[in-house]
Automatic annotation (TrEMBL):
Pathway the protein acts in: Cofactor biosynthesis; molybdopterin biosynthesis
Enzyme Commission code: 4.6.1.17
Molybdopterin cofactor biosynthesis C (MoaC) domain segment(s): 13-164
Reactions performed catalytically: (8S)-3',8-cyclo-7,8-dihydroguanosine 5'-triphosphate = cyclic pyranopterin phosphate + diphosphate
Originating species: Tothia fuscella
Protein name, UniProt field: cyclic pyranopterin monophosphate synthase
Gene3D superfamilies in alphabetical order: Molybdopterin cofactor biosynthesis C (MoaC) domain (3.30.70.640)
Length: 168
């Protein structure tokens, strides 16, 4: 059942007013894969002109989570109690054969992004966690585009949901 459609099949925001508030947590992950090995070195050695990529991406992810209902039309504005964005710079493996993500080999290095969002409320925070990951990944792309125009944002997904009716 699509909860965002009413009986006339019109889009509407779901009424969560009658739902019990519970502690809720969502964790999402994603990644940015570099198309060349130089990008990894430039980030690691803080040599990019735009600044500290990982710190700026972390703040962008937090800001994205907080602004989720402004970006995704049917998301409820909720009282987020915590947002954590973890980023890990992963070196390339210099392998001749590499898995491809959207045509970009994954052996040139990457940044793994994980966002954890918590709230106490009547609806979950999965979209806020995914928005945090997306905001961080987009910021990384923005900050490296001068040196890596072919970097790719890897798959993003919710990896854990706790609380509410369908949470673990």
């Amino acid at each position: 059942t699509l909860t965002h459609l009413n009986s006339a099949s019109e889009v509407h925001m779901v009424d969560v007013g009658g739902k019990e508030a519970t502690h809720r947590t969502a964790i999402a992950s994603g990644s940015v894969h570099f198309s060349n090995a130089e990008t990894y070195s430039l980030i690691k050695n803080a040599q990019l002109k735009k600044g500290d990529v990982l710190s700026v991406a972390r703040v962008a992810g937090i800001m994205a989570a907080k602004n989720c209902p402004l970006i995704i039309p049917l998301c409820h504005p909720i009282s987020i109690t915590s947002v954590t964005v973890d980023l890990e710079l992963i070196p390339g493996n210099n392998s001749a054969s590499a898995e491809l993500v959207e045509g970009v080999p994954t052996n040139n290095g990457s940044v793994a992004v994980q966002a954890t969002v918590k709230c106490y409320g009547p609806t979950g925070v999965e979209m806020e966690a995914l928005t945090a990951v997306s905001g961080a990944c987009l910021t990384i792309i923005d900050m490296i585009k001068a040196v890596d125009r072919e970097a790719v944002i890897g798959p993003s997904r919710v990896v854990l949901k706790i609380g509410g009716r369908s949470g673990d």
